[in-house]
Design a protein that fits this description.
The complex is a heterodimer of chains A (153) and B (259).
Chain A lengths: L2 H26 L32 E2 L3 E7 L2 E3 L2 E4 L3 E7 L5 E5 L14 E3 L4 E6 L3 E7 L2 E10 L1
Chain B lengths: L1 H4 L2 H19 L3 H24 L8 H13 L6 H17 L1 E2 L2 E2 L3 H13 L18 H10 L1 H9 L3 H19 L7 H10 L10 H19 L1 H4 L11 H12 L5
Antiparallel strand pairs in B: 1-2
Helix pairs in contact in B: 2-4, 2-8, 3-4, 3-5, 4-5, 4-6, 5-6, 6-13, 9-10, 9-11, 11-13
Classes of the chains: A alpha/beta (153), B mainly alpha (259).
Amino acid sequence: MNSKMIVGLVVVVLLIVGGFVLLKGNKQSPQTIAPSAVQPTQQSAQVTPVSTESSSPSGSMTNEKAVTVTLTSSGFDPATITVKAGTKVTWVNKSGVEATVNSDKHPTHLLYTPLNLGSFVRGASLSLVFDKPGSYGYHNHLDPSQTGTVVVE
Amino acid sequence: MARLLRIPKMQMLFALSAIIITAIIHKPTLQVVIIYLASILLTIGWDYFFLKVRRVDFFLPSAALVTGSIIGLLHSPLLPIYELFVVTFLAMFSKHFIKKGRKHLFNPAAFGLFLTGIIFFHTVSWWAASFQEFKIQNVEFIIFFLILLLPGYISVIKLRRYWIIFPFLIIYSLLNYVLNHFFSLFDPTVLFFALVMLPEPMTTPNKSKVQIAFGIFVALVSLLLASPILTTRLLFLNSLPDPLVTGLLMGNLIFLPWK
């Protein structure tokens, strides 16, 4: 068996396995959230209609139990928020395109897996309650130049 | 022109140009065009500068063009322009001066992006190699995805670096699935890294068995660096700009004796 056949065989096996896992993943993963949908996703994450709650100034501490971060075409605003444990953070997508909220680091998203909230279309929102103190970096997987941090005290 | 197109580096440049065109279609802002062109021009500029310093005659900067393209695709267009000066400077500096014999040690784009990330406290953006998700129901994204695979024709077929690429993709995808329940084989960032940056001939081993080891090494190190297993115990790892780029540079260094 020459090297070209080996390469071809590897490519075919990868495509079959990858296709199988992709199709299986598409059936099991949460659907892209549309603006009018309200359904729980994972752990304490929640999808809600666009919130009217105010967002805290960039980097400053807030005593509110709920904080909103807006995703625009320029990125997450505010990029850094500091909140108390037990605060619910809601991300609203006003970027005009589909986006995601995923934990650092790109592209594995392993540092804080509850932050892997998935994708949301424009106008939709995603939420997560942060229970434990720490610094949680996240980004938009579809445009990793858009990053943010939640600091929980 | 036809002769130029037969050179693998020029073919890679055309493939990267196709990717940036899809990125501009996806994110049509003047800023991204400016940053991409600036990246290429600055890289060529620094390449020419260091050739002058070394008193070497100027020649077709095909390698600098490819490096500049990669930097333009991965360096965030939201960052200040002076950072682009630094990235391209460091990339060309490593290519010209961090060498063993005639071969440079490190992937130049990876070196520049890594050090700039440490200096300015940010990660590698991968902005132009992240949106091309394989969505079977969307023709536009299928085309974007296929264009993302174009560099594979050069690195797999023409340069025959499959002994690096496929072991990396297999190990990385399987382990990522075990750790994160996410099969990253079709992830745009992972594919771009595997097909463009990982198999660079000047900085990787030449023998097939060592190439397999290299591909597996980079996969394992990249995942370890991204995993809380290490990062919660060795906090300095959180300041490293990017696990894939860091893993590649470590591989370039560790496998130096086998080049």
